[in-house]
Amino acid sequence: MALTLKDLRSSTIMRPPRIVIYGPHGVGKNTFASSAPKPVLIDIEDGQPAGLGVPSLRVPEFPPLMEALTALYTEEHDFETLIVDSLDWLEPIFHREAIRRNNEANPNKPWSTIEDAGYGKGYILALDPLREYIDGINALRNERNMAIIQTAHAEVKRFDSPESEPFDRYQIKLHKQASALVQEHADMVLFANYKTSTTKAEVGGKKTVTRGVGGGARVIYTEERPAFLAKNRHNLPPELPLSWDALAAAMAPAAPADA
Fold first, then answer.
1. Which of 50, 115, 194, 229 has the smallest CB count inside 10 Å?
2. To the nearest whole percent, how much of the chain has pLDDT over 70?
């Protein structure tokens, strides 16, 4: 079918967001996600906090994962948000699937671990099932009009900047190639953390030390800073309370920026 001008689409049309939210353990990522409209959970960690009451599908391996996405795509339901908890627990599933596929194709040279491929090859092959998963969640967003929220844990890693000396920052706890692919397909990468500030205190005469202080407030950061990775395509404020209502309110009047 030939493409015509009737196929033009306005870039101002709001579509359900594809969100990756990451942060330290216990900061409240699941509570945030469960407050989204009519959520359903793909449960990788088997650790849904008590009291959230979100309907869930337990997914221990790759075939059940894709079956769950297919069911949400083909079957009648009124869910509006898919939560995947969590990406860093999902990544070993992609590794095991890559190992299974290799061993099926090369029974005389089987792998026991993803490292057995050598020179990072296993991690590259593990991107294939990751892409299939991303195609699945994109179909739910594009054709079933579901928002997607993927949680992940944070880790501190060295960042080699071409513009400065290397420094440490919070990143998504994924292999770098998997992390890059996940970020590429997200409309928002949100870093959730406790709000902190610093103060200087004098110790031992003239010596001073810098100490972190905080009142327990939890926030999400929407734009990248030296200390953490983040992005958004919705012209959001750089910082918001860790609350679905706060994010939804900030999204409502904003026109999406160019991807």
1. 50
2. 86
